[in-house]
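Example record used in the benchmark description.
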Amino acid sequence: MTANLTLSLLVGILMGCGITLLMARGIVRAFLGVLLVSNGINLLFVAAAGPSGVAPIVGKAAESEMSDPLPQAMTLTAIVITLALTGFILALAHRGWQVRQSDAITDDAEDARIHAKAAADDISHSDFTGDEPTEDESDDPGGHRRRAADARAEEAGR
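Model output (C-alpha cells):
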C-alpha cells in the first residue's frame, strides 16, 4: 500500500497550522485551530484508508476490490462531532463578546492568587485547618492520623 503524498502533506500542514492557532489567546483563533486540526484528522483517516475501490456492498464485487468502510464511518462521525463543537464554541465566543467586547482569554486574578498560595504552601484562609482528621477513624487502623493531630494540639497548647 502506498500513501498519497499530497494528502500526507496536506494533513501535516493542517495539523501544524491548527496547533499553532490553538495556542493563541483569542477564542476565535483557538476555535479555527480546532477546526483545522479536526479537518487534518479527517484527511488522515481518508489517507490511512488506502486506495479507493468499489463500494463495500457484498455481492457487487470481489472482496479484494472493495474499499474499507470503517475509515469512512469514522470520518463521518468526526464531521458530526466537529459540527456540534462548532456550534458550542461559537455560542461561547458570542457570549464572551457580549460580556467583555473582546475575545481575548485573560488570566483570572483569583486563579493567580490561588496558584501563588499553593506555591507558598499557605492554607491560612482555607477551610482545612489541619487539626481535625478529615476521614473516619476506621480508614486509619493504626490511628496514625489521630496521634498526629493530638501531637499538633499539644504543641499548640505549650
